[in-house]
Structure formats: C-alpha cells, structure tokens
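Hi, here's the filled form for the chain we discussed.

Project: internal
Contact: R.S.
Residues: 93
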Amino acid sequence: MYVGIIQVDLIIREAHSLKDKRRVLRSIKDRLRVRFQVAAAEVGVLDDRREATLGISLVANDATHAQKRCQSILNFLESHPAADVEDSQMEII
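And the returned structure, exactly as it came back:
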C-alpha cells in the first residue's frame, strides 16, 4: 500500500472576503473528491482571505500509480481559473 500526500499553497485571486475564499475552496475540494477520489482539507492559516493551504491524500497499490495521480491533481490545480498554485510538495510513502 502506498499513500500519496500533497500540500499545495494557493493564492485565491478573486477572494474579497473569507466567504469568497471558502466558496472557492469548497468548489476545489468537491471537484478533487469527485474527479480523483481523494481526501482534501484546508490545513494552513484559516483567517487569511487570499492564501490557503490544502492537504490532499490518496491511497494506491502501486507507487508509480500514486505518483501519476498526484501529478494529475497538481496539473488540475494549476489550471484552476480562480486560484494560483504558489508552492507544492508531494510525497509518496
């Protein structure tokens, strides 16, 4: 069993309030769950309206498969219209 862990720092461009930030993050997390079948949660500073850190995890039976899925998730996040990826870290355990 292999576990893929991704930590992504995002800049929410269109967030004028915490409510806007939560709306964008909820949309991103829901899409990740449906499309990639992963667990996702906001794990960083919660009270900054423009910055967010997401923690994403997945389980796979092959390390290569876990690596490819993690890369697909990062590609998806980098193409999101409302958020920019500032930094990311990926680890396969």
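Let me know if anything looks off before we file it.
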